[in-house]
Design a protein that fits this description.
Blueprint: H1 9-17, H2 22-32, H3 36-55, H4 63-73, H5 92-101, H6 103-152, E1 157-163, E2 171-177, E3 182-188, E4 196-204, E5 210-215, E6 222-228, E7 235-244, E8 255-260
Antiparallel strand pairs: 1-2, 1-8, 2-3, 3-6, 4-5, 4-7, 7-8
Helix pairs in contact: 1-3, 3-5
Length: 262
């Protein structure tokens, strides 16, 4: 301790806790009125006490606490009409100093709240992504089960598709079940030109070809298309054409693969 600052750090904590009394309390109050450094230390002590209060479990106060607190902040009775008057503070400069000392603490709370808010948003985004992934997995599993059921059905037909003349070599096979309205295409074709796309068609017994899917095959890669079709539709053939990139509403390009439904 020095003559300029005759108080220890724990004295400020004791004062903030209300455990300092008598001459020590009065001496600290008188010194804080004239010392900005010790005013800041007292404000920091109040901040530490506040943090302890926030960390403690919530306990309902006893009925007499409110009455005792009101007696501390309200002045004595005037004796006439039972009116109470609030006593003005004798240390406005000290009170103001404490308030300014608490500003950094308030700023820290604000930063913590913003951090928690951002962290909550991040967790919500992760939960939404997990839910979307779970939905996609369930959809994939349902499709695989449906395909397995179709493969085991007696009325499922297998259509082998062969390449057409003057077209790049390729192979493909279509599994089709008219009753279930479901088809699966598995094939391998050379990469399409940069401005072209392959397009798969179902050719019904009556009417125009129906587009089943558009794809850009990678060199040496396999393509797989699983599609729903109108149940009960009779198909006489499946075909793959080379169309402008993105596909067309009706076949316009050369036929690359063709397979009749037997």
């Amino acid at each position: 301790m020095t003559n300029e600052h005759p108080f220890r750090d724990e004295d400020f904590d004791l004062y903030a806790l209300g455990a300092l009394d008598g001459e020590e309390k009065r001496a600290l109050e008188a010194h804080v009125d004239t010392c900005d450094g010790c005013t800041e230390k007292l404000g920091q002590a109040y901040g530490r006490v506040a943090m302890i209060g926030l960390a403690a479990p919530q306990v309902p106060p006893s009925p007499g606490v409110k009455e005792q607190l009101m007696r501390q902040i309200v002045g004595t009775s005037t004796g006439r009409g039972g009116t109470f008057a609030v006593m003005p503070s004798k240390k406005p400069s000290t009170f103001s100093g404490w308030m300014w000392a608490l500003v950094p603490l308030a700023g820290g709370f604000a930063v913590a709240l913003v951090f928690l808010w951002l962290h909550t948003l991040q967790l919500d985004a992760q939960i939404d992504a997990l839910k979307a992934h779970e939905v996609e997995q369930e959809r994939t599993i349902a499709q695989e089960r449906e395909e397995i059921d179709m493969l085991g059905a007696k009325d499922t037909v297998v259509v082998s598709m062969s390449e057409q003349k003057q077209m790049p070599q390729g192979t493909a096979r279509v599994l089709y079940n008219s009753k279930r309205g479901m088809m699966v295409y598995n094939g391998a074709l050379p990469a399409a030109p940069a401005d072209k796309s392959y397009q798969l068609w179902a050719v019904p017994m009556e009417g125009a070809p129906i587009s089943v899917g558009v794809f850009e095959s990678m060199e040496g890669g396999a393509n797989r298309i699983m599609a729903k079709m109108p149940p009960g539709m009779q198909v006489k053939a499946f075909a793959v054409t080379l169309e402008p990139r993105g596909g067309m509403p009706a076949p316009t390009g050369p036929f690359v693969l063709m397979g009749p439904v037997s």
